[in-house]
Specification:
binds zinc ion; ribosome biogenesis; binds magnesium ion; binds guanosine-5'-diphosphate; flat; single chain; Ribonucleotide Reductase Protein R1, domain 1; OB fold (Dihydrolipoamide Acetyltransferase, E2P)
Length: 370
């Protein structure tokens, strides 16, 4: 039997723990396959962190495309004549941070990060807070199955927008809130305290929020390009690609994401319900159970808006995301119907052919029917 738990292997520095080892044994018992983690996805290929080192493998033909952070089983011993080492399957994900593929009329899901324990929702102190954006990010973070942690960056610039912290705490929907500065090192120990061996954290937030600087400060060297790179600055530096897993010295793993504009939600009803639990609760006390919260008599939402206990902006933000998810489902259903329609046409054609066929040769009454 192969030993999948050698301590201090490259695999462990990418977050391999007894939990993953057990999952691997359950999913691929006595298969001779090896566990590995997807450190990066490229077009049609992935960079895998395996016990023997990093390796690139093709993903064409796999029934499920791996995402960064996925745990996979791969066949290390497949002979070159058969195409060499290959991914055999994916371990079930315990979390997936996803969004709707941008500019995609077919409404496909894009998984930005798999198997994260924490989604660091990054908001900087050097600019006014965008509450809508924070809410949207929190919805996606809660929905991923990982735990959101709000990280307020650039604490050294705190004086500029003092109101930001209070607003964020109010809107964090139960998530913990930390304050850090990559400049002074404030709060980094507290943040590091969340990053126990085997934990994975992806950072999510607008461009310029300080995500890359935070990662560099935690790792202790320049692994991510931060800020504007002046001519000559980038020379000889080994920076990892954004969205590549970055191992911390202790077996925790970090992941940066590029600042994503207009993060479109994917099936995030659960996350929406978490971030706006108060609104969904409020809506249950409307007089009519099918209240659309417009001009109905006895509408608890309209009453709360009128007396100021529900902020208009927050209600609008909730409604916008709710509509977005509803229209996503409409398109998903329409696509499913088209698929069913095509399948039906195929079946009808096959049935017609079978009838034709039977017309010529009756199947033997005692023979196998299929
Ligand atoms: N004063 C201050 N500036 C920071 C801090 N962290 C990042 N910055 C600056 O903010 C800018 C954007 O940082 P960067 O890490 O590239 O942000 P990213 O786009 O989220 O990765 C850069 O010019 C950084 O030098 C901080 O803690 N304090
Ligand atoms: Mg960056
Ligand atoms: Zn109502």
């Amino acid at each position: 039997m192969t030993d999948t738990s050698t301590p201090h292997s490259l695999l462990h520095s990418y977050g391999y723990t007894e939990r993953i080892a057990a999952l691997f044994r359950d999913e691929f018992p006595d298969s001779g396959l090896r566990p590995a983690r997807v450190a990066r996805t490229d077009r049609g290929r992935v960079l895998l962190a395996a016990d023997g080192g990093l390796l690139h493998l093709a993903t064409a033909g796999l029934p499920q495309q791996p995402a960064t952070g996925d745990w996979v089983a791969y066949d290390a011993g497949r002979p070159a004549s058969a195409g060499g080492p290959a991914i055999a399957g994916l371990l079930p994900r315990f979390s997936a941070l996803s969004r709707k593929q941008a500019h995609d009329p077919l409404s496909a899901e894009q998984i930005l990060a798999a198997n994260m324990d924490i989604i660091g929702v990054v908001a900087p102190f050097d600019r006014p807070l965008s509450p809508n954006r924070l809410e949207r990010t929190l919805v996606a973070a809660w929905d991923s199955g990982a735990v959101p942690l709000v990280i307020l960056t650039k604490a050294d610039l705190r004086g500029k927008h003092d109101e930001v912290a209070a607003q964020i705490v109010e809107q964090a929907a139960g998530a913990e809130v930390l304050t850090t500065s990559a400049e002074t090192g404030d709060g980094l120990d507290t943040l590091a305290g969340y990053l126990a061996p085997g934990r994975s954290m992806a950072l999510l937030g607008p461009s310029g929020a300080g995500k890359s600087s935070l990662i560099n400060a935690l790792v202790g060297r320049e692994v991510q390009d931060a800020g504007a790179v002046r001519a000559g600055d980038g020379k000889g530096r080994h920076t990892t690609t954004v969205r590549e897993l970055i191992p911390l010295h202790n077996g925790a793993v970090l992941m940066d994401t590029p600042g994503i504009r207009g993060f479109a939600l994917w099936d995030a009803e659960d996350g929406l319900g978490t971030v706006f639990a108060d609104i969904e609760e409020l809506a249950t006390s409307c007089r009519f159970s099918d209240c659309v919260h417009d001009a109905e008599p006895g509408c608890a939402v309209q009453r709360a808006l009128a007396d100021g206990s529900l902020e208009r902006r927050r209600w609008d933000s909730y409604r916008k995301m709710e509509r977005e998810l509803a229209s996503l489902h409409l398109r998903q259903n329409a696509a499913a119907q088209r698929r069913t329609g095509r399948q039906f046409a195929k079946l009808a054609k096959a049935a017609a052919q079978a009838k034709d066929y039977r017309g010529h040769r009756e199947p033997r009454a005692d023979g196998p029917r299929r």
